C-alpha cells in the first residue's frame, strides 16, 4: 500500500486546472458515455422485474438521471461541510437492484398494488439517508465489523444474483417470458450482437472507445431491434416529453423489516463510497494519510454529508444511489 501512496498518477490536468474548452468537452462526453448506461439500467431492471407500468419505469429513469446530476454537483463543488471537492460522480448503485426486486416481488405476491410498493421502497430509501450520514462518524468502528471479507462475500452474492437478471434480459426479458417468445432466435441474436460489440470496443486501445463501448452496444442493439420490428412505441404515446420531479409522488410508507435488509446494503455502500473517494484522492494527488490509505476526515466526512443532502433530497423521487467514479 505504501507503494501506492508514492506512485504518481498520469494526470493531464491537476484537480483545480481549467482545460481548454474542446478538451473539457471531450472529457465531459467521455464521462457521460461511461455513466449513462449504469445510471439508467438499474431502474429499467427493477421496473421490468416488478412489471411496473411504462409511466412508473420512465419516471424512475428520469429521476435517476436528475438525482445523479444533483448529487454529482454537490459532491464536486464544496459548500462548507458539504461535498468532497473531488471529481466524484454520484450514480445508481447496482447493489440495491436485487434487494429492491426481492422486496417488491414479495409485496406484489402478497397482493399490494404498484403505488404502495413504490411508496414502501422509496420510504426505506429515504430513511436510509440518515443511516448513511450517521455512519460517517463511526467509520473506524464500522470497518472492524464489516471487514473486506464480509463485504466481499455480500457483493459477490449480489453479483451472482444479477446473473439471473442478465440471462433473462439476454433471452428477451420478462415480457418475452409472458408472451412465450423467450429465447427465440431474434432475441438471442440481438443479445449476442450487443455482447460482441461491447467486448470488441472494450478491446480497443482508445480510452474513449472503451468507455463508450456499452453505450455503442446499446445503440447497435436498438437499431437491430428496430429493423427486426421488435420495438413497440405504443406504451410511450402518453408519456410526457419532460418529467418534473414530484416529491413523495407515491406517498410515504415505512416497513422496519424492509429497512433491516436495505440498511445492511447501505452500510456496505458507505464503505464502498469511502474507498471510491480515497482512490480518487490518490489519483488526484490530494492529501491522504494512514497506513490503510484513507482521505482526511474532513474531506471524507464532507463527502458523506454531500451524500446525505443528495439522498435526502432525491430519495423522495427515486431509488438508491452511491458515490462512484
UniProtKB/TrEMBL annotation:
Q: Name one Pfam family in it.
A: Xan_ur_permease
This protein's major location comes to: membrane
The organism's place on the tree of life at top rank: Bacteria
Which membrane topology describes this protein? Answer: Multi-pass membrane protein
One GO CC term of this entry?
plasma membrane
Q: Which UniProt keywords apply?
A: Membrane, Transmembrane, Transmembrane helix, Transport
List residues traversing the bilayer.
24-50, 56-74, 81-104, 116-142, 154-175, 187-204, 211-231, 251-275
The organism of origin for this protein: Escherichia coli
Which gene name belongs to this protein? xanQ_2
> Which PANTHER family does the entry link to?
PURINE PERMEASE C1399.01C-RELATED, XANTHINE PERMEASE XANQ
This protein's record includes keyword Membrane: yes
One GO molecular function term of this record is: xanthine transmembrane transporter activity
- Is Membrane one of the keywords UniProt gives this record? yes
State the family it belongs to.
Belongs to the nucleobase:cation symporter-2 (NCS2) (TC 2.A.40) family.
Compartment annotation: Membrane
Q: What is this protein called?
A: Putative purine permease
Amino acid at each position: 500500500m505504501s507503494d501506492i501512496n508514492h506512485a504518481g498518477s498520469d494526470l493531464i490536468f491537476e484537480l483545480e486546472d481549467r482545460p481548454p474548452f474542446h478538451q473539457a468537452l471531450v472529457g465531459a462526453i467521455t464521462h457521460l458515455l461511461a455513466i449513462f448506461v449504469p445510471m439508467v439500467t438499474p431502474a429499467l431492471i427493477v421496473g421490468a422485474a416488478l412489471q411496473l407500468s411504462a409511466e412508473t419505469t420512465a419516471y424512475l429513469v428520469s429521476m435517476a438521471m436528475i438525482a445523479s446530476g444533483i448529487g454529482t454537483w454537490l459532491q464536486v463543488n464544496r459548500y462548507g461541510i458539504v461535498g468532497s471537492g473531488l471529481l466524484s460522480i454520484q450514480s445508481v448503485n447496482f447493489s440495491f437492484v436485487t434487494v429492491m426486486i426481492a422486496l417488491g416481488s414479495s409485496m406484489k405476491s402478497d397482493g399490494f398494488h404498484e403505488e404502495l410498493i413504490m411508496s414502501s421502497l422509496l420510504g426505506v430509501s429515504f430513511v436510509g439517508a440518515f443511516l448513511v450520514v450517521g455512519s460517517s462518524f463511526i467509520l473506524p468502528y464500522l470497518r472492524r465489523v464489516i471487514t473486506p471479507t464480509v463485504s466481499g462475500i455480500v457483493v459477490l452474492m449480489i453479483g451472482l444474483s444479477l446473473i439471473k437478471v442478465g440471462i433473462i434480459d439476454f433471452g428477451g426479458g420478462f415480457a418475452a417470458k409472458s408472451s412465450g417468445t423467450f429465447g427465440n432466435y431474434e432475441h438471442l441474436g440481438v443479445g449476442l450482437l450487443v455482447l460482441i460489440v461491447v467486448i470488441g470496443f472494450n478491446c480497443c486501445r482508445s480510452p474513449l472507445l472503451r468507455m463508450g463501448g456499452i453505450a455503442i452496444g446499446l445503440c447497435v442493439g436498438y437499431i437491430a431491434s428496430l429493423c427486426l420490428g421488435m420495438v413497440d412505441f405504443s406504451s410511450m404515446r402518453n408519456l410526457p416529453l419532460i418529467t418534473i420531479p414530484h416529491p413523495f409522488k407515491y406517498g410515504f410508507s415505512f416497513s422496519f423489516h424492509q429497512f433491516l435488509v436495505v440498511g445492511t446494503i447501505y452500510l456496505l455502500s458507505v464503505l464502498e463510497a469511502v474507498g471510491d473517494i480515497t482512490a480518487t484522492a490518490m489519483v488526484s494527488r490530494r492529501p491522504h494519510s494512514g497506513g490503510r490509505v484513507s482521505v482526511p476526515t474532513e474531506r471524507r466526512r464532507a463527502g458523506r454529508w454531500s451524500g446525505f443532502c443528495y439522498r435526502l433530497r432525491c430519495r423522495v423521487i427515486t431509488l438508491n444511489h452511491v458515490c462512484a467514479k
